[in-house]
Specification:
By secondary structure, this protein is mostly helical. Helix content is about 65%, strand content about 0%.
């Protein structure tokens, strides 16, 4: 629905659906103590959480690149 409203092509819509499904995969690299921390994160902890978003594109790119 959103992809259609944005006027995305079929290929772009497929990419968007894939990204939506895997967007939190990178959280497996964030320690549980940070994910479940009840209080505010320190600057270093926040940096670790931010890094999870950079993991998935790298994993996706490497898995989609032909050998």
């Amino acid at each position: 629905m959103i992809a259609r409203a944005l006027g995305l092509s079929s290929e772009e819509t497929t990419d968007l659906v894939y990204a939506a499904r895997v967007h939190d995969v990178g959280k497996i690299f964030v320690p549980e103590r940070i994910l479940n921390k009840p209080g505010p994160l320190t600057d270093d902890e926040f940096l670790v959480v931010q890094m999870h978003a950079r993991v998935v594109p790298r994993l996706s790119a490497s898995s989609l690149t032909p050998p």
